[in-house]
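Note to self: keep these together.
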Amino acid sequence: MTEAPRVGTDQLMELLSVSLGVYYGDFTVAAASENLTASQGKALTVLRRGPAAMRALAETLTCDASNITGIIDRLEKRGLVRREADASDRRVKNVVLTAVGERVTDAIRAKMRATQEGLERLDDQDRKALHTLLERVFVQPPSA
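Structure:
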């Protein structure tokens, strides 16, 4: 019995690039359907996990602090987020997703048909395996 050839890191990176391209395209169209830019949609998605300081949000979205200010200004004007002073340091402003912002974020995900259809093709075992692998690669800190 011959062993299957090893899948190289370059092949995995290429497939990941294709996958993220599909996801990002799907996300961008869904965000636009809610009259949001991709950056605004990404900010809402990050805030869906919980409130974030402006500086941390800029770092997570890998954008300049002045850029995040403009993004949050526009989201706040639409009632999707609000700024709150941090309880421990009043100079720090945390951005919080409003109930309207939560509904818009959920609507964006619901409209991501290509992504949803791809994930729906997976059975429970494949879903669990994908979840475990994505968490291991992108979420868990490397072991020492």
